[in-house]
């Protein structure tokens, strides 16, 4: 059984988020939460909330045990960019690009053999 959770328009660049995603891809869900709790990155906090949401969905909607779940797939894709401008020296302007990210996670239950 697969459980999916998505979050859109996170205020972080996809490149920074992928660095965090690569650390926990394929881990047990509980182990990934423990690793993310002690990572100093902003993306670790955001990803931890997403995995906790996916685990809560698995428990409430599908009656699965959270100790039996692992991260099957984890993707961080680019979202839309916001272009802002700030005044610069001598009448010029400086562009500021604010990037966003869409993250999706798929949790799967370990299969008993």
Please give a handful of descriptors for the protein shown:
alpha+beta, single chain, two-stranded antiparallel ribbon, Ribosomal Protein L22, Chain A
What can you tell me about this protein's structure?
The structure is a single chain. The protein has 113 residues and is of the alpha+beta class. The chain has three helices and five strands; from the N terminus they run E-H-H-H-E-E-E-E. Helix 2 (29-37) runs antiparallel to helix 3. The longest helix is centred in the middle third of the chain and has 21 residues, at 42-62.
What are the secondary-structure elements, in order, as H or E? Answer: EHHHEEEE
Category from helices, strands and their pairing: alpha+beta
How much of the sequence is in beta strands? Answer: 35-45%
Mean pLDDT: 95
What name is given to the CATH topology?
Ribosomal Protein L22, Chain A
Describe, in short, the structure shown.
This protein is of the alpha+beta class. 36% of the residues lie in helices and 35% in strands.
Helices and strands in order:
Layout: E1 2-10, H1 14-24, H2 29-37, H3 42-62, E2 69-78, E3 82-87, E4 93-98, E5 101-109
Antiparallel strand pairs: 1-5, 2-5, 3-4
């Amino acid at each position: 059984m697969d459980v999916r959770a998505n979050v859109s328009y996170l205020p972080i660049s996809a490149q920074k988020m992928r660095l965090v995603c690569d650390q926990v891809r394929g881990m047990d869900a509980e182990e990934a939460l423990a690793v993310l709790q002690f990572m100093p990155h902003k993306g670790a906090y955001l990803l931890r909330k997403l995995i906790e949401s996916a685990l809560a969905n698995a428990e409430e909607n599908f009656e699965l045990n959270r100790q039996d779940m692992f991260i099957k797939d984890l993707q961080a894709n680019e979202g839309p960019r916001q272009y802002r401008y700030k005044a610069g020296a001598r009448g010029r302007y400086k562009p500021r690009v604010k990037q966003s990210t869409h993250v999706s996670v798929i949790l799967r239950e370990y299969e008993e053999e």
